[in-house]
Design a protein that fits this description.
With 232 residues, the protein is mainly alpha-helical. Helix content is 57%, strand content 0%. Keywords: Membrane, Transmembrane, Transmembrane helix.
Length: 232
Amino acid sequence: MTAPFIVGDSSPFLKRVLIPFWVVRILIMIIQIAVYALLVAGLSIYEDDSRRLFDEYHTKLSYRTVLAVSCVIMAVILLCLILDLVCIIQRARRTLSPSFFLGVNVTQSLFYTVSFILGMINARPSAVYAVVQVLILLSFLGLLIYSAIVFHQYRKGALRGTYAQTHNPEGHKLVENGNTGYPPQPTPYGQEYSQEYPKATYYDGAAPHPYSAETYGAPQHQGYEPNRTAAV
């Protein structure tokens, strides 16, 4: 029989589900952070040339606006990466709660959904770019769906932890006091059973053996008398 799930005793999140998603997502976020870091570092050459900035990035935004947007996006991706690392540590310690995990995935999925929509509208996506963006979005939506399922089971009380033996201190008290919790059973003659049981006696050599001839006497032969021949 299993006990209700308790945070810290076990974890309802399966490693075979979490690990593939985490590996893909962490690789994606590391690559994106590196790309935006290079972008922020390389934007300085377009500071005084807005025409060149438009030709390179197809945007009418000014240099400072592009720099600010790039820094914000990089910071949000870094935050998503940190949240995934926190979830990994909590899962290893079995302290990852369904509500926290769902909140993390809602935040991450919301950001990447907005990013995907803006990327498809403002950019000139090729087929490869579109496929990559869809895979990135699915890696976040997939774990969001899984976290929502686990949270729903948690709210319904359907999650089960490891086996836990029921602790009954009253039962220990009854045994310690010599009381089984049942009234004494009377004998057919209205007397209670004695609490002391007679000890068995053992043969020590002094008393006759219970199956010896002294106890039962000489063997008797019914209907037979041995022939006695008189001396002549």
